[in-house]
Amino acid sequence: MTQYAIVTDLDRCVGCLACSVSCKVINGVPVGNFWNKTLRVGPNPKEGGSGQWPDVEMYFLNVQCQHCENPECVKVCPTGASQKLPDGTVQVDKEKCIGCQFCAMACPYNVRYLNEEERVVEKCTLCEQKISQGELPQCVSQCCGMARWFGDAEKGIENFEGPGGYTLGEFLNEFDDTQVYQLPDAGNKPSLMYILRDMKWQGGDQ
Amino acid sequence: MELQWPLIIFTTLVAWSAGLFASQCVLAFQGGARKTQMTSWIVAAVLLVVGGIAVFLHLEHWERIFNGFGHLTSGITQELIAIVALAVVALVYLVMLRRSADETVPQWLAVVGVAVSVVLVAVMAHSYLMPARPAWDTPLWILAVLGNACILGPATLVVLMAVKGDLGAGAAAVTTAAPRAAVAGGSTKPAARA
To answer: Which residue of B has its CA nearest to A95?
Structure first.
């Protein structure tokens, strides 16, 4: 089995929006739609701090399709347009999509958008057109902070690749398993992961 | 996410239609409301058709409607199956009604009519139970839509019976009380996509 995914080191992300912008450019994402959005989480008071600056912390969170193991969007799709591919990615067959938008309702992360021109639902494809040729997703290759890493989660995230031929394991500062987070799981088992070392993860209990 | 009026109209009208059909089935089981049976059937059918047109308009690519609907885990597919089942039972009901000399249908058919109506409303409401939408993800939503059907259906049938002169002695109180109950209790909202 293969489960392609992205790992983001949130301690390296500077919130430059290069991932969001490059995604729009390479995929022609319409105005108002965001296959990859960068959220600011915080500033929040540090635990045990005064509650005032400088005892605050903040990080940026890149939210996109989580290419879930058990995707709700695939379950609710009446036509089979939303489907899980053998490489672990969740894709939309636009020829089959009837635009009922139940997948957008069922997605816990609000990352599916109706393309009003084509009248079908779209979302992050993990740049299927690139990864099928051995390239990196555009949001990974354009990450100037070397925060984004792409690979097969079944083979361990240490082997994930980033720009310049580096691997996650050899490039990033040390972290342990307790510092690897995922977005809240509503039974869909998200595949994308986030590394956060010294700040409090605000995405709920794991 | 904006309110999806086609879905709101669909949910309301289908619950209304199923409630009305089930109500006439209940009375048919007892051999009552004979003058109103045909009128009630027509009104229920119209409600179902208008609801169907409304949900059709919700689809961005309605011309692809026959492309799929083979995915059984989808609530929409389950709804469609339940609607087809109700339509088949309603058609059999109509045929039996037309063939009957005294505007009655077999009791077994009345029971099947009630059962398929309840199943349709429950399946339709169930399609909105999604873990990603915690406010919707409760069995109370199914009870709310069933409640809509149980209020709108009987209330409409009583009005139709009054119009057709099908109410027996002492039913005047029911005629006035049922619409009042509908107004007081029918405030639950159907599928609002927030």
So the answer is: B64
